[in-house]
Each structure stands twice: as structure tokens, then as C-alpha cells.
Design goal:
Layout (H helix, E strand, L loop, with lengths): L4 H19 L8 H17 L23 E3 L9 E2 L2 H15 L6 E7 L2 E8 L2 E7 L5 E3 L2 H4 L15 E9 L1 H13 L8 H9 L4 H6 L2 E11 L6 H10 L8 E3 L2 H14 L7 E8 L2 H7 L9 E5 L5 E12 L5 E12 L2 E7 L3 H7 L2 E2 L2 E7 L3 E7 L9 E2 L9
Parallel strand pairs: 2-11
Antiparallel strand pairs: 1-6, 3-9, 3-10, 4-5, 4-7, 7-8, 10-11, 12-13, 12-16, 13-14, 15-18, 16-17
């Protein structure tokens, strides 16, 4: 039991340690029952002694703060967007331009997944999270600190005490996005179109209690303002991970060919990743060389996003069937004229729900755009309404599946 202020401090540190092992390392040190007991001991002490509450106590993550609007905040250092390449030839051309600009041989590159979420800037002072803001226009972004404090993979306290901006991506893991949409459908709400939209919308909530209910995850991918002069990008990100953050897979590459091999390897395992990614980032590891190369009007010269191609194919929607899932929920499935999409013959594609069909004004015999979401699941993106003729027919939901 807590008897002194020091007991409370020790308990908070232990709770933070247990939470880190549970949410970040996925290696729990104690059972959920024991954690809950200790959590409620801390909560009881804080209710009796509100003047003693530590800002990094796990009790401060619950949410419930309601903002009248989202204020704006200027970043300490600008948040840049990345230029893109879509092929090995374009990658080689970028590397040549970079080498010509540097007027020197280029050193090691670090490659990592390009996450498809919401970019976030975390600012720490004296080891404590002071503010969190979205990218915005790169100079000023929306302040969302009240929501970010509910994200368990973001430490409220780190051992590094100098001022620092840690940048990364807020996203919903695939399993959490699917669970969120299933819950929304059960409540009669429209599902989110994709995990990125859901992540952005969750960060922009005025009520942090809503954000707390959504299992957002944060992965750091870079630094902004930093008082400490790191020499290596990889070293800096490894140190950030040691401060309590999740880590991405970083691969060191010395040439265009090695970057291409890393891209191919990442593409192959992309369907099995826990998160959505739309490419790979290649960045110079030498931070001094980064600073000397600088930026163009909109992007850093020393980094590039190597994007995955999105193969879109057009075909005719023949009819819509109902599919019953394990939970008993009915999902509409579009039957298509067979078409090859990224090497696979596709004759059926998910439509998610009838709300989506109504919103898109999708009709039988429409010519539709089809992709393989995550290069695996066929999905109808939209109808090409300009190609409609008199053969179109409205789609109406059926209470029972068609056998």
C-alpha cells in the first residue's frame, strides 16, 4: 500500500515499466490483474493528493479532456514532405542528382518502411512530453497533445532531458482498424474508408475520450529540433527506441542495387506486415552530410520515398451477392467480369457495406475501378459514372444471403 510520496513515485515508475513491456515490447512482466490493482492504488492516492500527481503517471492517459477547438502550434524545425520515385530507373536518376550535388561519393543509406498514417511531431523538454502537433503545412500544425497522451506507445517521459522533437507516424494496425470498423458497423455507423483516414480523424477529435477508445500506435521515423548532435541517423533512431518507443526495421544499403534489393524484399513481406505501408524511405545515414545537402523548396535532398505502384484495372460489375461472416454480419460482394490485377485473376471484390454502395452510387453493369488492397484483397474503388448507359440498375440490400 502507498504510505508516502516516495511510495507513490516508485509505484508510478513501476507502472510505466510494466506498460512499456506490455504495449511496446509485447513481453508483459505482470498479469493484467496485478497491473489493474497497482493502477487503482496509484489512482486512489492521486484522488486523495491531486497536488502530487506526476504528469507521466499512466492514469493521465485515460482521456476525457474536451477542447473547444484545435489550436495551432509552430514546429521548432520545419516538417518536410518527401519527393517520390516509382521505379529503379528513377531511383538511379535521383542518386546521380544527389551525388552531383554533393560533389562527393555518397555514403551509407538507411531504408525503412514508409508508413501510411498521420505524421506527428512530439516535443519534449526536461524529459517530459510538452506538446504534440500534426504536420499541417510543415511550419504550423494542429495541436493534439490531449489526444496523443492517450496513445500507449508514446512515452510521457523519456530519459533524454534536452529539448527535442521526435517525429513519426500515428496509425491503426490492421487488426485494430478491422476491429474498429466492425464495432462501427455494429453501432450502425459508417465504417472508415481506410486506416489512414481513421488515424487522422482520431487525432483531430476534440474529445480525447473518443481517441482513447481507438487503439492508435506510434512509430518514430526521424528527429526535428535536437540539442544533441548525433552523427548517424540510424544511431539516433536506435537511441530513440531505447527511450521507450517502438522501432521500425532499418536496413543499411551502400548502392542503388542494394536499395532495390531492400525494396523488393520489403514488397514481398508487405502483405504480412501489421501496418499499412505505401513504400520505402531511403535516407543518407550521415547527418553532417544531410545538413550540408539541405533542402529544395519542398523536400530534403538527402531522402526519397520509393513508392509501391498501385495497379488499377477496370472491369464490369455483374451483380452483388451477400456473404455471411462468422459473426453473422452480412457483407456485400461484387461479382465482376474476370480481370487480371497485379498478376492475379480477380472475379470478386469486397464492397465493405451497403452504405459505401449508396455513397458511391454504385450500380449493376457499372464499369468499376478495381485494386488489390495490400496487394492481396480485391477491392472496388469507384464506378466510372461517365461510362454509364441504359443497362445500369440500382443495387438494393437483401436481408438474407443469396444462395
Amino acid at each position: 500500500m502507498i504510505q508516502t510520496l516516495q511510495d507513490y513515485h516508485n509505484l508510478v515508475e513501476n507502472l510505466c515499466l510494466y506498460a512499456h513491456h506490455y504495449y511496446v515490447l509485447a513481453k508483459p512482466l505482470v498479469s493484467d490483474e496485478i497491473y489493474d490493482q497497482l493502477y487503482h492504488q496509484a489512482l486512489a492516492y492521486e484522488q486523495a493528493h491531486p497536488e502530487d500527481i506526476l504528469p507521466h503517471s499512466p492514469t493521465q492517459r485515460v482521456g476525457g479532456e474536451v477542447m473547444p477547438f484545435l489550436p495551432k502550434q509552430e514546429h521548432k524545425a520545419r516538417m518536410w514532405s518527401l519527393d517520390n520515385v516509382f521505379s529503379f530507373k528513377e531511383l538511379q536518376e535521383w542518386l546521380k542528382r544527389l551525388s552531383d550535388f554533393a560533389k562527393a561519393p555518397l555514403e551509407s543509406f538507411i531504408c525503412s518502411p514508409k508508413l501510411d498514417g498521420a505524421s506527428l511531431n512530439l516535443y519534449y523538454e526536461d524529459g517530459h512530453l510538452v506538446s504534440a502537433s500534426m504536420r499541417g503545412n510543415g511550419v504550423v500544425g494542429e495541436l493534439v497533445t490531449h489526444n496523443v497522451k492517450t496513445i500507449r506507445s508514446i512515452p510521457l517521459k523519456i530519459p533524454y532531458t534536452k529539448p527535442i522533437e521526435i517525429r513519426g507516424e500515428v496509425l491503426l494496425l490492421k487488426k485494430d482498424f478491422n476491429a474498429l470498423n466492425a464495432d462501427r458497423l455494429a453501432q450502425g455507423l459508417a465504417p472508415f474508408a481506410n486506416a489512414r483516414n481513421a488515424s487522422v480523424g482520431s487525432l483531430r477529435q476534440l474529445n480525447s475520450g473518443i481517441t482513447a477508445q481507438r487503439k492508435l500506435t506510434f512509430y518514430p521515423w526521424g528527429l526535428g529540433f535536437c540539442a544533441q548532435e548525433f552523427t548517424s541517423f540510424k544511431q539516433a533512431m536506435q537511441e530513440v527506441q531505447e527511450w521507450g518507443f517502438l522501432g521500425l526495421d532499418f536496413v543499411a544499403c551502400e548502392s542503388a542495387q542494394q536499395i532495390q534489393e531492400a525494396f523488393s524484399a520489403f514488397s514481398a513481406k508487405r502483405p504480412n506486415l501489421p501496418y499499412e505501408a505505401d513504400g520505402m524511405v531511403a535516407i543518407l545515414d550521415n547527418l553532417e552530410l544531410q545538413r550540408s545537402l539541405g533542402f529544395t523548396i519542398k523536400a530534403p535532398r538527402f531522402a526519397i520515398a520509393y513508392k509501391f505502384p498501385t495497379a488499377e484495372k477496370c472491369t464490369k460489375l455483374l451483380k452483388v451477392l451477400n456473404q455471411v461472416g462468422r459473426s453473422g454480419a452480412i457483407t456485400p460482394v461484387g461479382v465482376l467480369e474476370p480481370v487480371f490485377v497485379q498478376g492475379a485473376l480477380v472475379s470478386r471484390a469486397t464492397l465493405d457495406n451497403y452504405t459505401q454502395i449508396e455513397q458511391q452510387d454504385l450500380q449493376i453493369n457499372d464499369i468499376v475501378v478495381v485494386v488489390r488492397s495490400g496487394e492481396v484483397i480485391p477491392k472496388i474503388l469507384r464506378p466510372l459514372k461517365e461510362l454509364r448507359d441504359h443497362t445500369q440498375a440500382k443495387i438494393t440490400p437483401h436481408p438474407l444471403p443469396q444462395l
